[in-house]
C-alpha cells in the first residue's frame, strides 16, 4: 500500500508540473473606461498586451489615462489569478492544498 501511495503522489506531482507549465497559455482580459483600455494577462500573472484607444489619449488629462490603465491592469491580473487557481484546482481535485504549495 505504501508503494501505491508513493505512485499516486508522483502522478499528482507530474500533473501539477504540467499544469504549471500551461499557466502562461491561460489568458484573462480586462477593460476600463468603457473598453477604451484593454489589458491581457497570462495565468502566470504577466501582462501580455495593453491596447489604448486613441480617443482617450489627451495631454491635458494624463492622470485619467494612468488611472484607467492601472484599473485595467489590476483587474486583468486578478482575473488571471482566478483562472490559474481554477486550472490548478482542477488538477489537485479539490485536495485543499495551501497556497504556495502548488
Describe this structure in words.
With about 100 residues, the chain is of the alpha+beta class. A three-stranded antiparallel sheet has the order 1-2-3. Helix 1 packs antiparallel against helix 2. The protein is about 50% helix and about 20% strand. The model has no long low-confidence stretch (mean pLDDT about 90). The protein is built from two helices and three strands; from the N terminus they run αβββα. It starts with a helix and ends in a 10-residue tail after the last helix. The protein has a single domain, classed as Ybab, Chain: A.
Overall tally of structural domains? 1
Query: In the CATH hierarchy, what is the superfamily?
Result: Nucleoid-associated protein YbaB-like domain
* Inertia-based shape: rod-shaped
CATH class division: Alpha Beta
User: How confident is the prediction overall: mean pLDDT?
Assistant: 88
> Helix and strand succession?
HEEEH
In helices, the fraction of residues equals 40-55%
- Poorly predicted runs of 5 or more residues: none
CATH topology: Ybab, Chain: A
What's the total count of β strands?
3
Structural class comes to alpha+beta
Radius of gyration: 19 Å
Number of helices: 2
* CATH architecture assignment: 2-Layer Sandwich
Distance N to C terminus: 25 Å
Task: Describe the structure using short key phrases.
102 residues; alpha+beta; Ybab, Chain: A; 2 helices; 3 strands; rod-shaped
Show the helix and strand layout.
Elements: H1 2-22, E1 27-32, E2 37-42, E3 47-52, H2 62-92
Helix pairs in contact: 1-2
Amino acid at each position: 500500500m505504501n508503494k501505491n501511495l508513493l505512485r499516486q503522489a508522483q502522478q499528482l506531482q507530474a500533473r501539477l508540473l504540467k499544469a504549471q507549465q500551461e499557466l502562461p497559455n491561460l489568458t484573462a482580459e480586462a477593460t476600463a473606461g468603457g473598453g477604451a483600455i484593454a489589458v491581457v494577462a497570462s495565468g502566470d500573472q504577466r501582462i501580455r498586451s495593453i491596447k489604448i484607444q486613441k480617443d482617450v489619449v489627451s495631454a491635458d488629462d494624463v492622470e485619467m489615462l494612468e488611472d484607467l490603465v492601472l484599473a485595467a491592469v489590476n483587474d486583468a491580473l486578478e482575473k488571471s489569478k482566478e483562472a490559474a487557481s481554477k486550472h490548478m484546482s482542477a488538477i489537485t481535485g479539490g485536495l485543499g492544498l495551501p497556497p504556495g504549495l502548488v
